[in-house]
Amino acid sequence: MKEQAISQKEFGVTREGRAVSLFTLRNRNGLTTQISNYGGTVTSLRVPDRSGQFKNIVLGYDTLTEYEVGVAYFGALIGRYGNRIAGGRFELDGEEYRLAANNPPNHLHGGECGFDKMVWNAAATESEKGPSLLLSCISEDGQEGYPGKLRVQVRYTLTHDDRLAIAYLASCNQATPVNFTHHSYFNLCSDPGRDVLGHELEIDADCYTPVDQYLIPTGEIAPVAGTPFDFREACRVGLRIDAAHEQLAIGGGYDHNFCLNRPVGKAAVFAARIFEPESGRALEVHTNEPGLQLYSANGLQGSGYRTGLCLETQHFPDSPNQPGFPSTILRPGDVFNSQTIYSFAVH
């Protein structure tokens, strides 16, 4: 019997009593992803290795309860503002706004109840490109301290040419910072007990943004040349991760924003690639965002330490407080439109 392109099942009930679903999308080649409308969370992503074995390549939990209490953002949609805002504050049009300092002393990934902790409205559909899941929500004025009502749609599509495409749309009735991202931890070994230091990584970025002791950008746009942050040619993640470099010491490894080399325009272009030699799995990232946060799971405890790579497409951290960075302010009448595509192959 041919397996369905889309299926849905119960995933549990939140502590507030809201029912949550888990959707499975399957393309014609057998790739599958499971996505919950709790946090827009990708709970699994099964792709083949060079022997044709399909296994999960993202870290995650087994139960809704674990996602509710978890602090690692496994597979989640992140917003209103992905990454950090210094001191949990910013000024906009002459008014100061204060946000939760949930990563003391800073604001991180939308606050105490960001998009990763919301139950989204969900509708699954099929198209010529592949099965998709449309998620929508309204972030009310003042939620987590942000100004204005924000209407958000996020569409996940598992295409028949083996891509997981994520399209973000948002509009507002008052000026507000907007910076969405996706927070899957990729492990192409498909073994959550193995580190990712042997993965080969390439990032199309000539520069990155150094950070202070609190992981807030200093405002400098620094060249990667001659540093452990030079991934313009593919090399093993672990080759220089423990090098004697101030920025690596601050982050405990990689936890930095890369300034992508991209032409002027709105189209998604190549940003990064990872390859795992043993399995033969490869993943490419394309985006229309100007930045990419590389996080080597330095903060995961115990056996999870450095067992995943986050490749978070984004605008730069702390942009509302950094006039030299690309603006993240969305204004009434404008539409936020962001695209990220994860492409899978075997070599």
Description:
The protein is mainly β. It has a single domain, classed as Beta-galactosidase, Chain A, domain 5, CATH 2.70.98. It is 3% helix and 40% strand. The strands form seven sheets. It has a nine-stranded antiparallel beta sheet with strand order 11-12-13-14-27-23-22-17-20, with no helix packed on it. A five-stranded antiparallel beta sheet has the order 1-2-3-4-5, with no helix packed on it. A five-stranded antiparallel beta sheet has the order 19-18-21-24-25, with no helix packed on it. A hairpin with a 4-residue loop joins strand 3 (32-36) and strand 4. The longest helix has 6 residues, at 64-69. The chain starts with 5 loop residues before the first strand and ends with a strand.
> What string gives the helices and strands in order?
EEEEEHEEEEEEEEEEEEEEEHEEEEEEE
What's the number of structural domains? 1
Helix content: under 10%
The beta-strand count equals: 27
Count of separate DSSP helical elements = 2
* Overall outline: globular
> What is the CATH topology descriptor?
Beta-galactosidase, Chain A, domain 5
Radius of gyration: 19 Å
CATH top level assignment: Mainly Beta
Low-confidence runs of at least 5 consecutive residues: none
Main pleated-sheet profile: 9 strands, antiparallel
- What structural class do helix, strand and pairing data support? mainly beta
The N- to C-terminal Cα distance equals 30 Å
Question: What is the percentage of strand-forming residues?
Answer: 35-45%
Mean pLDDT figure: 96
**Spatial order of the strands forming the largest sheet:** 11-12-13-14-27-23-22-17-20
The second-level CATH architecture is Distorted Sandwich
